[in-house]
Specification:
heterodimer, A: mainly alpha, 6 helices, about 60% helix, disordered N terminus, B: mainly alpha, 4-stranded mixed sheet, 10 helices
Chain lengths: ~140, ~325
Amino acid sequence: MVNSRRAHNALPNSLGELELKVMESVWSLPGIDARRITDRLGADAPCRLSTVQAALERLVRKQCLERRKKGHAYQYFSQKSRSELLGSMLKDVIHLLHDGEANTILSSFVNVAARMDDDALDELEKMIQRKREHERGGRR
Amino acid sequence: MSDFLQVLGSFAALWMALWFACAALLALGYRAIRAPLLGWHPAIAGNLLLLLLAFPFLLSFSTTALLFTPAFGSLVSVHCHTDCAAHMPVIATPGLVPIGLMLITLVCVLIWRRLALNLRTAKRLKAQLQRLARHQRDFKLLESEQSLVFTLGWWQPTIYVSEGLEQRCSQQDMAVILAHEHAHSKRLDNVRLLAASLFTLVLPARLAKLMKDDLHLLVESACDFEAAGRFGDLDVAETLLKVQRLSPAQSQIGRQAIYSAFTGAEIEQRVGALVQGRQRSLKQHAGLQFSVLVLIGTSLALVEPLHHGVEVLLGLP
C-alpha cells in the first residue's frame, strides 16, 4: 500500500488506463455523454456505465474535463488537449529524473536535471571547434 | 528451534555478516580505484563497476552457499568434532540465529520495496505514454513542446522523442540521438542501473550515490562512444551540447528555479571524453574476465578458513 501511494505520488499528473480511454473518446467527440462513451468503450471490452461515470467524475475533479448539463444528461468537453496532458506527464518524468528516482526506469539523452550556464556550454563548444580545426590542420 | 530454522538462521547470519564485511571493504577501497576505473573505455569500465557493485552480494552468497553445501565438502579439509562426518557450520550461540533471520528478512523487504516501486512507476508511465504517443519507424513521438528524448523500460525498452525536440533538431542530430538511444536498448542499460540500485542497498548512502552516479556516467558515455563509432566523436559532442541547451532544466535558467541541483559535470565529462579522443581500445576486456576469475577463486579459497573460523568462534571442540 505504501508502495502504491509512493508510485502514485511520483506521477501526480498520471491518469489510469480507463481515464485515458475516456479522454480519447471526449477528444474525438466533444460533448459526448457517459452512455455513448460506455458504448464506444464496450466495443473493445465490456464496461459498466457506473464505472465510466466514476472515471468521468475523477477527470472533472482533476480538471481534465468540464461538463455541461443538457436535458437529463451531462455533456463532457476536454479542458486539456492531448499535448497539454502529455506536457504535464513529461513534467513528472523530469521531476523523477531530477530526484534520481527515474534513473533505474529510463535513460535520458542528456541529464535534464543538469543546469550549466551558457558560458560553460560556450566553452565546451569552443573546445569542440578547436579540436575540429586541429583535425583539419592535421589533414592538410 | 527446529534443525531447519537453525541451519537457515546460521546461513542467514553468516551471509549477512560476509555481505556487510565485503561491502565495508568496497567502501574503503572504491575511492582508490575510482580514478583509473573512470579512465578506461566506458563500456568496459561500466561492466567492471557493475561487477564491483555486485561483488559483496555475489561473493558473500556464493561463499556461504559453498559452506552449507555438503557436496562441496572436499573444499574443507577433513577434521573431527564429536564425530568425523561432513558437517555444516551451524551456529549454536543463542540470539545469533534470530538476528540472522531478522537481517535477511529486512534486506529482502528492502529489495522487494525498491523493486516494486520501480516496477509500478515504470508500468504506469509506459501504459500512459504508449497510449498517448504516435508510433514512428524507430521511436514513439510525443506531442509536446518540451525537448525530451529518453528510453523507457527494462527488457524491451522503447525510445520516446518529443515533437519539440524533433522540430528543433536537424536530421543529422536526430540520427545521432537515435544511435545513442538504440545503444541503451541494445545494452539493456536500464536493467544495469536497476541492478546497481539494488546492490548498493547495504552501502553507505553517500558512497552508494557516488557509485551509482559513476555508473550512470559510464553508461551514457558508452552509448556516446557507440554513436561516435558511426557519426564521429565531434558530431556526437556537438549534438550533446545542442540537446543540453534545449533541455527543460536549461530553459529554466534565469527563471524561477524548479531544479536545485547543479550537476552539469556529467555533460562536461561526456563531451570531454569525446573531444579528447580517450583511449578507445577494448583491450581492457581482459580486466573483466580476470575479475570474474578473481571472484570465483576468492569464493573457493574463503570456504576453508571461514568454516574453521566460524567453528572457532562458536567454540566447537
